[in-house]
Design goal:
Number of strands: 5
Shape: globular
Helix content: 55-70%
Strand content: 5-15%
Oligomer: single chain
Structural class: mainly alpha
Radius of gyration: 19 Å
Number of domains: 1
Number of helices: 8
Distance between the termini: 60 Å
């Protein structure tokens, strides 16, 4: 039952132009994310206009791509790119960081909300609910590419990737399931619930994503050029820990504020 990975990373080829599944995951991730944000605005009666969400589309694309690339350069391969700065812009060669993309998206949201005179956390709460869509599609694309594979396993669900003949955990699918589908459902149930409607969804996203990422990285091979960085933690785990801390801090801070008002 061991699955041998022989999936073509090219989705469509027209007139010698190749369109990759990875590119499509980004395209549909942004497109579906924007539509989902509009749906949540109507469902939760948030005071944000539909055309403002459309305007944010370009801001989000720039924030994620620029942040994701710079995050990879700084967090994962700084020494190499300092010696080869001309390759920083060569995104098509691979190398994007989720944590960098999140920082880029948050930065673009900050300036966008100031320009549009929208509350940052009001907007961030809605946008964060849509992020799992991109994560779900992106991790499936990672699996199709046969990249970011897991550690060796004796389980029947192991996958033999092209890199060797060893059955490995399909950690990309684990991440797609937990960081994508499960987190999407959790955020949807909370944001549409009357009981939890005042809960800070951005904080919930940070906490759950951080926990899921740290746990799933136990089944994933660390980057070969980095290995385990500190105390047997991978770079992905190290970068996820501040997400949990920040999420808990602001969640507690908001709860204290609401409690003070109630008293």
């Amino acid at each position: 039952m061991i699955f041998e990975h022989k999936i073509n990373p090219v989705a469509i080829e027209i007139f010698n132009i190749s369109i990759y599944w990875y590119s499509l995951s980004y395209f549909f991730g942004f497109l579906l994310g924007i539509q989902y944000i509009k749906y949540l605005i109507k469902r939760t009666s948030v005071d944000i206009k539909s055309d403002q969400v459309d305007d944010f589309f370009v801001w989000s694309v720039i924030g994620v791509i620029v942040g994701g690339r710079l995050g990879y350069v700084i967090f994962y391969n700084l020494e190499y790119f300092l010696l080869n700065p001309n390759e920083i812009l060569m995104v098509w060669k691979g190398g994007m960081s989720f944590h960098g993309g999140l920082i880029g998206l948050s930065t673009s949201m900050y300036f966008f909300t100031k320009k549009q005179k929208i509350g940052f956390f009001v907007f961030a709460n809605i946008v964060s609910c849509s992020v799992p869509i991109g994560l779900f599609l992106g991790r499936i694309a990672n699996f199709i590419n046969g990249e970011l594979s897991g550690k060796p396993t004796n389980g029947l669900w192991g996958v033999k990737f092209n890199e060797d003949d060893i059955p490995r955990h399909p950690s990309q699918l684990y991440e797609s399931f937990f960081e994508g589908l499960v987190l999407f459902i959790i955020l949807y149930l909370l944001v549409t619930s009357q009981k939890f409607k005042k809960l800070n969804m951005a904080c919930v996203f940070l906490i759950f994503y951080g926990v899921f990422r740290i746990l799933i990285e136990l089944f994933r091979e660390p980057d070969k050029h980095l290995g385990l960085v500190v105390f047997n933690f991978s770079m992905g785990q190290i970068l996820s820990l501040p997400m949990i801390i920040i999420g808990l801090f602001f969640l507690r801070k908001k709860n204290e504020k609401n409690t003070t008002k109630f008293n």
